[in-house]
Design a protein that fits this description.
The protein is of the alpha+beta class and 229 residues long. It contains 11 helices and 11 strands.
Length: 229
């Protein structure tokens, strides 16, 4: 069902002369062999909201538009409801640590580079004739095979400290180990008080997601082990 949905999104994008890609966590899960994916992120090199409206009309789905972020969420009805988040490709600039970033239009590579870890910085092409082709500029597949969790640049945890808690969840859920430089950057960020600078609401969301993990106690134990290593 998801494959058919993505093919249709690719065709609708092609009709509008824009490129659309599945990105992020859904691509990571497919690479890990996880088949039952019901939340799909799509990024568009073009107008993401216009694309989302076209997809919602085609599937007679619900749509919630977030104009300030240039994103939209589509609900597609069926025996296994699918949620599709659609956004325009963008790049982000953090003017100070832990601040909300300034957002600019960007390329697919810009969009992947702004993400938290290499394993979440992969995309799958959706245009007709190329559906399913992997785009992996930062070697996320290689890190998955080596069971490594790696940030994309040295400022990552300073820019967005909530990535620390997100990484803990991924490490426990998927049995990953921290790449050496990433672990060092994490400890430096925590020692510098990075988590205390993050917006409380954003941190609360990450903590709530940790509680919802299959083994939240293991997440807390893993986080503690990182701080004393």
């Amino acid at each position: 069902k998801v494959r058919g949905l993505l093919k249709t999104i690719g065709r609708l994008a092609d009709e509008r002369n824009v490129q659309a890609y599945a990105v992020g966590g859904c691509v990571r899960d497919w690479c890990l062999g996880i088949q039952r994916v019901t939340d799909v992120d799509v990024t568009v090199e073009g107008d993401g909201i216009a694309m989302a409206r076209a997809v919602a009309r085609h599937f007679n789905g619900t749509i919630q538009i977030h104009e300030q972020f240039g994103t939209a969420t589509i609900g597609v009805a069926g025996p296994r409801g699918i949620r599709v988040d659609v956004a325009s490709c963008r790049r982000e600039v953090y003017e100070r640590p832990a601040a909300y970033p300034r957002v600019f239009a960007g390329t697919l590579e810009d969009d992947l580079f702004r993400r938290d870890f290499t394993i979440n910085a992969m995309a799958v092409r959706l245009e007709p004739g190329h559906v399913g082709v992997l785009v992996d500029p930062f070697h996320g597949v290689q890190d998955l095979r080596r069971r490594l969790l790696r940030i994309l640049h040295a400022r990552s945890f300073s820019d967005d400290p909530s990535r620390i808690l997100r990484g803990v969840r991924f490490a426990v859920r998927f049995g990953l180990r921290w790449e050496r430089g990433t672990a060092a950057a994490l400890r430096r960020a925590v020692a510098a008080g990075a988590l205390g600078r993050r917006n409380a609401g954003r941190l609360h969301k990450e903590l709530a997601r940790m509680v919802d993990e299959p083994d939240p106690q293991a997440c807390w134990a893993h986080f503690a082990s990182l701080l004393v290593a």
